[in-house]
């Protein structure tokens, strides 16, 4: 097609040859090269085959020189009659390996331009197909551009050796950090210990009955995460306005009764605490969206535009629209819709490489039991929600059901599912006047949480 239109695909034969020549004349540069460029970024077939041959030899610890490379090419069945002469030419046209990383940048840039062209063509094809919907095409375009920016692809098989390098690096980093959490801190120490923080690509559900404090714990986690990781935290609230959310955060941060804050009845000392809390919150990068008709696709599109995203918080799952075109619940099975949303949430967390913490409602099933503590089966319109989530936390307060109980503000965060570790009960304290959850320093269950 490009030839018919008189267009030439962007590539640099000279830079590709210089990379290969540098690897042949100075094998010491190979570790830097293989960390900088991939075989698929070479445009010319023979250059790609030679690079992939040397990459495989490097991965297996084999000695690399023109003779061994030719032998390996024979074994890989990519050797040709002209291969020996071509390797010699590669070494002749490369005077030094000193600039090999610059050559890699040239090849990577040309590969990115080709990928952009391919994506643009695919997007254009979708635009002119009959029956395509604008929102769906826009989502496709944003997803493809985002994948290119992140230098990632949607899937693809990787060799075990390549994945092992990433995992070993992750383990080494954890060892170097000592007691530091591998994930983002929630600010609730015992939950952090169970989950090991909020990990990259995790989809975490926090579920409870209405009025139990889902929004409150969501805001607690958002503020603490923004402070601890220094990255952007995005909050999508489908139930409360931005102003209501910020009022709650100010109440929690300043330790001023939310009712008094709403009334503006503050003492001079409280005005000072409020100003200090406002100053503290203004230092963190928290962004809020209160669109009540939000879809997962719209949420993902906004998140892709954030350069340093650390965490996404959604309040709450059952209020979210299911389809990119904004279909309402009336158009489909409610259970299937919620299942689709939960699956999309997990896919989005994996794509964005950030944790998504999502609030969820529980059904009334637990209220018919004598023991009203939540179970996985209580997830409202559950479908596949519990399958998609990496962790599920159920909130429970005895005082919610019995205000005359001994300690109505004692709370439990019950880890119902945890792909990364233990399940069990974490004890918290609910402070109703500030609508916040805090660590309970005095109570631990028999498992030591």
Subunit arrangement of the protein: single chain
If classified by CATH, what would the architecture of the largest domain be?
3-Layer(aba) Sandwich
SS content category: alpha/beta
CA gyration radius, whole angstroms:
28 Å
Helical proportion, percent range: 40-55%
Order of the strands making up the biggest sheet:
3-2-4-5-1-6-7-8-9
Count of strand segments: 9
CATH C-level class of the largest domain: Alpha Beta
CATH topology name of the largest domain: Rossmann fold
Order of helices and strands: HHHHHHHHHEHEHHHEHEHEHEHEEE
Principal-axis shape equals: elongated
Provide the β-strand percentage band.
Answer: 5-15%
Tell me the count of domains. Answer: 2
| Individual helix count | 17
Q: Which superfamily, in CATH terms, is the homologous superfamily of the largest domain?
A: P-loop containing nucleotide triphosphate hydrolases
The major beta sheet can be summarized as: 9 strands, mixed
The residue ranges in which pLDDT falls below 50 over 5 or more consecutive positions are 323-332, 444-449
- Give the averaged pLDDT, no decimals: 79
N/C terminus separation:
63 Å
């Amino acid at each position: 097609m490009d030839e018919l239109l008189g267009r030439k695909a962007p590539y640099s034969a000279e830079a590709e040859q210089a990379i290969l020549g540098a690897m042949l004349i100075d094998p010491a540069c190979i570790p830097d090269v293989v960390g900088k460029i991939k075989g698929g970024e070479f445009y010319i077939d023979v250059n790609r085959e030679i690079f992939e041959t040397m990459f495989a030899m490097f991965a297996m610890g084999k000695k690399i020189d023109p003779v061994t490379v030719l032998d390996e090419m024979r074994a890989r069945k990519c050797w040709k009659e002209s291969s020996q002469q071509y390797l010699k030419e590669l070494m002749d046209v490369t005077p030094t390996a000193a600039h090999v990383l610059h050559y890699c940048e040239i090849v990577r840039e040309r590969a990115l331009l080709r990928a952009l062209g391919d994506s643009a063509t695919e997007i254009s094809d979708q635009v002119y197909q009959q029956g395509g919907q604008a929102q769906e095409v826009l989502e496709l375009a944003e997803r493809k551009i985002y994948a290119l920016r992140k230098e990632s692809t949607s899937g693809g098989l990787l060799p075990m050796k390549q994945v092992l390098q990433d995992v070993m690096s992750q383990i080494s980093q954890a060892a170097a950090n000592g007691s530091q959490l591998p994930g983002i801190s929630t600010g609730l120490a015992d939950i952090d210990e169970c989950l090991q923080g909020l990990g990259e690509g995790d989809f975490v559900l926090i579920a409870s009955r209405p009025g139990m404090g889902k929004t409150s714990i969501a805001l607690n986690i958002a503020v603490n995460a923004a402070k601890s990781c220094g990255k952007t935290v995005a909050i999508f609230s489908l139930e409360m306005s931005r102003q209501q959310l910020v009022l709650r955060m100010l109440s929690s941060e300043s330790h001023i009764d939310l009712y008094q804050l709403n009334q503006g009845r503050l003492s001079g000392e409280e005005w000072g605490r409020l100003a200090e809390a406002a100053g503290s919150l203004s230092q963190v990068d928290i962004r809020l969206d209160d669109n009540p008709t939000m879809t997962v696709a719209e949420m993902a599109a906004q998140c892709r535009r954030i350069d340093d995203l650390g965490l996404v918080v959604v309040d709450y799952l059952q209020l979210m629209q299911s389809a990119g075109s904004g279909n309402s619940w009336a158009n489909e099975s409610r259970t299937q819709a919620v299942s689709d949303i939960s699956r999309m949430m997990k896919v989005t967390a994996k794509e964005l490489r950030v944790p998504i913490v999502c609030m969820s409602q529980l059904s009334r099933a637990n209220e018919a039991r004598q023991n009203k503590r939540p179970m996985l089966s209580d997830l409202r319109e559950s479908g596949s929600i519990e399958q998609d989530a990496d962790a599920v936390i159920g909130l429970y307060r005895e005082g919610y059901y019995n205000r005359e109980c001994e300690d109505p503000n004692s709370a439990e965060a019950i880890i119902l599912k945890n792909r990364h570790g233990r399940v069990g009960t974490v004890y918290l304290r609910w402070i109703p006047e500030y609508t916040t959850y805090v660590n309970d320093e005095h109570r631990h269950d028999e498992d030591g949480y």
